[in-house]
Write a structure and sequence with these properties.
Shape: elongated
Strand content: 25-35%
Radius of gyration: 35 Å
Number of strands: 15
């Protein structure tokens, strides 16, 4: 029993564990460079030669730009309101003393427009502006944005296509509104990847070692049974689904949720009934789910077990009604009110009126008690 359940729990947990491991590794790999720069410090953009510029985080002391060539905006078709979201300015690499440089793009929110327009005018008048300290991430221009960038240089004949390709880089600096905030995001994402990886590995180790059966062993101990007795009970228990995820024995009811198998003692069950939930979307029925709900002496909350259909639910209730005469089977508003308001009266219906020893029907299928309302 326990070895079979251990294998099943490991298999059921494996897919989720592998997913967590892959997701963790992917997140770590995607965020590794950002995390590195966030922790060790950004690269000084002016120190980079053109062939060193790639996907990285940079600090920029901007003293010159060559104007805006592209406006990005949002348009509301109902109000016909156009809102500018970003502006694309042309900058160059290196500093004012650089021998080898290229033109590339700086993407900024519209709040920078006044400063950068004044700086652009100074640049064309060969006046060095006071530096603007900014930080951001170097990214590659999309094909569409690169097309606008190319048109800006070549449409008026200022550059030939060959000159444009030789004197520009297809990258832009995506300006950060808050460097500290972005650093926090990168650190949190990297830590999240580590956490996902650790959880995935932990789940694999836990499943391989039978850790998902820990609660089941506790359930058996709390019920006062030995594991040898329970193994025999489990072997003879009746299954109510194809995967043996819900089985009712004479001593305990065994159920699997996710990778974890649990059990509760049948001699402590007070009340059980079927719960049917109809699901609707926009008033249209989309499905029905069936559950069997168990109220158990000494348990703080009821246990709800999903079943495949109403036939399975009724079969479970019929079995309980037949062999566990101390259990109230079926639902009514009166029973609910009595259970909540007068527990002792409810227990007198069945729980306190007979020995909690499972009975079997006679050769004619008759039982010592009258079946309740299922």
């Amino acid at each position: 029993m326990f070895e079979d359940l251990k294998k099943k729990s490991f298999k059921k947990s494996l897919w989720a564990s592998v997913f967590l491991i892959i997701a963790g590794l992917a997140l770590i790999g995607w965020d590794a460079m950002n995390f590195w720069y966030a922790v060790t410090g950004y690269v000084t953009f002016e120190d980079l030669a053109p062939d060193q510029i790639r996907n990285q985080l940079v600090d920029v002391e901007l003293t010159a730009n060559f104007g805006c060539y592209l406006e990005e905006y949002e348009y509301n078709s109902e109000t016909r309101y156009k809102k500018t979201t970003h502006l694309y300015y042309i900058i160059w690499t290196g500093d004012e003393n650089a021998v080898d440089y290229r033109y590339m793009t700086l993407k900024v929110p519209p709040s920078y427009e006044k400063q950068l327009e004044a700086m652009a005018e100074n640049t064309y008048n060969q006046i060095l502006s006071d530096p603007i300290s900014i930080s951001g991430k170097i990214k590659k221009l999309s094909n569409e944005d690169y097309g606008y960038f190319k048109d800006y240089f070549t449409e008026d004949g200022s550059f030939t296509v060959e000159e444009f390709e030789a004197m520009t880089l297809p990258y832009y600096i995506d300006l950060y509104g808050s460097k500290a905030s972005m650093n926090s995001v990168y650190i949190i994402l990297f830590a999240g990847g580590i956490l996902l990886l650790a959880i995935g590995i932990f789940r694999v180790v836990k499943g391989a070692g039978g850790g998902y059966l820990k609660k089941l062993h506790e359930d058996i101990t709390n019920a006062g049974y030995t594991e040898n007795v329970v193994e025999s009970d489990y072997a003879s228990a009746e299954s109510f689904d194809k995967k043996d995820e819900l089985k009712i024995g004479r001593l305990m009811t065994y159920y699997t949720i996710g990778a974890q198998t649990r059990a509760f003692p049948n001699n402590k069950v007070i009340w059980t009934y079927q719960s049917t939930i109809t699901h609707r979307t926009n008033g249209i029925k989309t499905g029905t789910t069936y559950n069997v709900i168990f109220f158990i002496e000494g348990y703080k909350n009821e246990i709800t077990l999903a079943v495949s259909d109403e036939a399975a639910s009724q079969k479970i209730l019929q079995k309980i009604n037949t062999i566990f005469p101390w259990v109230v089977v079926g639902y009514s508003d009166e029973l609910k009110k009595m259970y909540q308001k007068n527990r002792e009266q409810f227990l007198q219906l069945r729980y306190n009126t007979c020995q909690h020893i499972p009975v079997e029907p006679d050769m004619y299928g008759r039982t010592p008690i009258n079946p309740g309302n299922l």
